[in-house]
């Protein structure tokens, strides 16, 4: 079973926890995807603790105003927090998603020097590991599934994913991109600290992962350090569809043993 194999492979580096799924509705924008917390910790009474409070408060306050922003702790220029919402969604969705993400971080990554959480519609990360503005195409989470398709589905998928890479997306707001071909839809989202070229490169890496790793699957999603991409067949609603469970999704969890995220303990939602 794929999940068992993945867990066994990852355990030396990562601690894996299966969380109950919080919702199955296609519009559950706050549904959990993955989280990671650094092993380094800070003291509750330290200046670092007030810095974390400060950046996460700024993140929460900014979410109703913009799909992306970054903040530096007033007392520690190395401590940065940022958030990125799916920039095609309304501000109210962004703000609700970011509040949920911050609650998740507080409970999953309590006292961790760095933490990141990805929910369906938003991403929040903080830490002192100089991640701001840096490309990161590390594969953090990957899932393929749906009713098995055929080669015409694969051609539509490749074409829909190709449209994401080709899209001249606005840089502001992290460059949400959408593509479609026949019955297959696709979308991608970068974190707004990447420039246009770095965003395209990240999306290209993400779509490459989906093409190489999802076989004839009719839905897939891959989350890299600074962007993610998804595809799904029309009407299936991707993984969040209530009908999806009936088809028995395949699941693939990848984590690379390089870079900052190698030092993170992963808390991955394996609910399918
Ligand atoms: C980040 O902050 C933690 C907690 O204060 C500290 O232990 C660690 O050394 C810091 N790392 C860097 C790269 O400054
Ligand atoms: C899939 O959805 C897109 C966008 O709604 C639509 O343009 C296209 O015709 C649909 N394709 C099929 C086969 O239903
Ligand atoms: C971080 O935020 C500052 C202040 O809003 C902004 O000027 C800067 O461009 C941002 N940096 C990145 C890499 O997003």
How does this model look, in words?
With 272 residues, the protein is an alpha+beta fold. The protein has 2 domains: 2-132 and 259-268, Killer Toxin P4, Chain A (2-Layer Sandwich); 139-247, Killer Toxin P4, Chain A (2-Layer Sandwich). It contains 5 helices and 11 strands. It has helices at residues 2-10, 47-62, 91-108, 151-166, 196-213; strands spanning 32-38, 68-73, 76-85, 115-119, 122-127, 139-145, 177-181, 184-190, 219-224, 227-233, 264-268. It has a 6-stranded antiparallel β-sheet, with helices on one face. Strand 9 (219-224) and strand 10 form a beta hairpin. The structure holds 2-acetamido-2-deoxy-beta-D-glucopyranose (3 copies). Residues 40, 42, 48, 78, 113, 128-129 line the site of one 2-acetamido-2-deoxy-beta-D-glucopyranose. One 2-acetamido-2-deoxy-beta-D-glucopyranose (NAG) binds next to loops.
Give the key terms.
272 residues, alpha+beta, Killer Toxin P4, Chain A, 2 domains, 6-stranded antiparallel beta sheet, 5-stranded antiparallel beta sheet, 5 helices, 11 strands, 26% strand, elongated, disordered C terminus, binds 2-acetamido-2-deoxy-beta-D-glucopyranose
Draw up the topology in text.
Elements (H helix, E strand, L loop, with lengths): L1 H9 L21 E7 L8 H16 L5 E6 L2 E10 L5 H18 L6 E5 L2 E6 L11 E7 L5 H16 L10 E5 L2 E7 L5 H18 L5 E6 L2 E7 L30 E5 L4
Antiparallel strand pairs: 1-4, 1-11, 2-3, 3-5, 4-5, 6-9, 7-8, 8-10, 9-10
The structure holds 2-acetamido-2-deoxy-beta-D-glucopyranose (3 copies).
């Amino acid at each position: 079973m794929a999940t068992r194999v993945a867990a066994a492979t990852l355990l030396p580096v990562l601690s894996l926890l299966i969380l109950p799924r919080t919702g199955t509705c296609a519009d559950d924008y706050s549904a959990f995807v993955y989280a990671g917390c650094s092993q380094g910790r800070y003291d509750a009474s330290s200046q670092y603790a007030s810095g974390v409070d400060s950046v996460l408060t700024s993140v929460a306050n900014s979410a109703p105003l913009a799909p992306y922003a970054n903040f530096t702790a007033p007392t520690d220029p190395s401590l940065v927090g940022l958030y990125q919402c799916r920039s095609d969604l309304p501000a109210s969705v962004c703000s609700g998603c970011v509040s949920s993400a911050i609650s998740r971080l507080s409970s999953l990554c309590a006292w961790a020097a760095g933490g990141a959480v990805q929910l369906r519609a938003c991403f929040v990360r903080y830490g002192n590991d100089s991640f701001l503005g840096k490309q990161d195409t590390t594969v953090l989470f990957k899932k393929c599934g749906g009713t098995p398709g055929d080669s015409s589905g694969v051609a539509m998928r490749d074409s829909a994913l190709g449209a994401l890479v080709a899209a001249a997306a606005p840089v502001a707001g992290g460059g949400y991109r959408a593509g479609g071909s026949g019955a297959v839809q696709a979308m991608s989202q970068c974190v707004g600290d990447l420039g246009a070229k770095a965003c395209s490169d990240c999306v290209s890496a993400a779509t490459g992962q989906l093409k190489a790793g999802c076989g004839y699957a009719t839905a897939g999603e891959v989350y890299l350090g600074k962007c993610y991409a998804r595809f799904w067949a029309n009407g299936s609603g991707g993984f969040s569809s209530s009908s999806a469970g009936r088809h028995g999704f395949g699941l693939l969890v990848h984590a690379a043993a390089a870079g900052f995220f190698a030092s993170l303990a992963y808390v991955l939602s394996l609910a399918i």
